[in-house]
Amino acid sequence: MSRRKGNIASPIKQKILLMLAAGTALSLTYTFKQQRRLAKEVMKEWKNIDRQRLYRLLDEFHHDRLISYDELPTGEVQITLTEDGRRQILRFDVDEMVIRRPLHWDGCWRVVFFDIPEAKRQSRDELRNKLQEIGFMELQKSAWVFPFDCQKEVDFLTEFFELRNFVRLAEIKNLTNDADLRLKFKLY
């Protein structure tokens, strides 16, 4: 029976990969309080996983090149996510993406511009649909606008849809005729 490389459909496999990524996630959280809360949640989850199953899944992830093992001078083994592992994690989160709305608008418009070749039409359409789904408004054919900081989310989407070279994000202080946008985004 052959297994597809990187196939991690089961929830336990997803959970373990996400917990391995938590080390990276800790560095991306904003406050010490958030880091501490995330660390507690991860430690609680690690304790609930059957050790034999964990080792078997880690071997599977290593075989599928989702993680790598590095032996440290102390004799400890460090487990690191590979690029393929990071890509798998990105796939878990795209459906849950939400951009948080701050209490006050900073007056900047964020505009996503793209010029994506026809060969990547499906990815272009998926990006366009996702931008609309998370609240962007179409400014022109390949220009979408949003009023709040969305750098991380746009980076995430361009990586996920493998469109990094075709997408640009700009912050614009003055956008003429933006009254309709202010109304749509309830920025009055």
From TrEMBL:
Any Pfam family hit: PaaX_M
InterPro entries (alphabetical): PaaX-like_central
Top-level lineage group: Bacteria
Domain Transcriptional repressor PaaX-like central Cas2-like stretches: 104-174
Protein name from the UniProt record: Transcriptional repressor PaaX-like central Cas2-like domain-containing protein
Organism: Candidatus Vogelbacteria bacterium RIFOXYB1_FULL_42_16
Lineage, uppermost ranks: Bacteria, Candidatus Vogeliibacteriota
